[in-house]
Amino acid sequence: MPDDPILPAGSALARFDEIDSTNSEALRRAPQEGPLWVWARVQTKGRGRQGRVWASGRGNLYASLLLPVDFEPALTPQVSFVAALAVHDTAAQLLGKGDPSDRLKLKWPNDVLLGGAKIAGILLEGASSGAARGAVAIGCGINLAHHPELDERKATSLGAYGCEVEAGAALSVLAAAMQARLGQWRGGAGFAAIRADWLARVGGLGERVEIRLPNERRSGIFATIDSGGALILRLDDGQEQRITAGDVFTLGHDRV
Fold it and tell me: How far is 62 from 38, CA to CA, in rounded Å?
């Protein structure tokens, strides 16, 4: 596949050999009429959720979609699930038939796992002030050729499964998948379908999990996600707790 991205009609592209962060650059360019993809071969200050460093050496995909917020701002968290499905779709397509795409699982809220190891992550950031307000950056990192060593969690890459793909070609697939999933979402009107598709692909559903919060840990059964995308944790006493942020770790396979 060629390494020159082919984007959906109406999408713009800003490409860099090296940049601090594709999300930062996307937000610097807001507001923007229509969707804008920012793509870099290397990030010097790549970041993930909760301020974690995202290793961003040459060979993987680092891209952000700057999306105008032409929907109710309160629905913005739903975009994380839209993006997670698009990245899952991308990885499945790149792996192709006969490859272990059935081992691809989503991890709440927006990671993608292959064989239980992290292969991709998503960072959603909104502009907080000035003219850029009303835009959101959807940062996507996919381990194509290599992966970092992570504390307390495994990582992998498509290359580890014999899938060789250039970043530009992967971006073409991702951009098409993102457009399709955003079309399915329809500014929130289609979140029920997004939620159903996400639940069909998530790992750990119905299993015992531990939620690691900044100052505590909670364990229980991963029951579902609600209409807002919050994880519903069923506690040992039968009560349910709504979790809006945290790291999920599967503890066992006792399904309910």
Answer: 8
**The pLDDT of residue 197 is above 70:** yes
Beta strand 61-68 pairing with 36-43: antiparallel
Q: What is the mean pLDDT of residues 49-55?
A: 61
- Max intra-chain CA distance, the chain: 55
Q: What is the pLDDT averaged over residues 19-35?
A: 90
Distance of CA 83 to the CA centre of its chain: 5
Cα 32 to the center of its chain, rounded Å:
22
Overall pTM surpassing 0.70 (yes/no)? yes
Architecture of domain 12-201: 2-Layer Sandwich (3.30)
H-state helical runs in 96-166? none
Q: Per the omega criterion (within 30 degrees of 0), is the bond before 68 cis? A: no
Domain spans in the chain, listed from the N-terminal domain onward: 12-201, 208-250
**CATH number, span 208-250:** 2.30.30.100
Residue with tokens 């937000």: 27
